[in-house]
Amino acid sequence: MIPSILFLYSFYKLIVDKYLTANERLFWIIIFLIFNILGAIAYWVWGNNKKRTITS
After folding, report:
1. How far apart are CA 44 and CA 21, in angstroms?
2. Residue 14 and residue 48: Cα distance in Å, rounded?
3. Contacts for 7 with CB less than 8 Å, ≥ 6 apart
4. In 1-56, which residue ranges form alpha helices assigned H by DSSP?
């Protein structure tokens, strides 16, 4: 049950993450659908980066 909750919460965070571009979001959605829980863990390790900076 915990892996399911982790997957659903990670997927929710992916959808509402304002720092991701459309291409990054699509990439992570595909990773989530193919690798399920491993995709969710990978998102928390590499995709959930809140320290992004915007360059002009």
Report:
1. 16
2. 8
3. 32, 36, 37, 40
4. 2-16, 22-35, 37-42
Residue with tokens 């459309």, as numbered in its chain: 22
Residue 27 sits at φ, ψ, to 5 deg, of: -55, -50
pLDDT for position 31: 92
Find tokens 């360059």 and name the residue.
Answer: 55
Q: What is the DSSP letter of 55?
A: -
List per-residue pLDDT tens for the chain, 56 residues long: 888 888 888 889 889 988 888 898 999 999 999 998 888 888 888 877 665 555 55
CA 21 to CA 41: how far, in whole Å?
20
Q: Please state, as a whole number, how many other Cβ atoms lie within 10 Å of the Cβ of residue 12.
A: 10
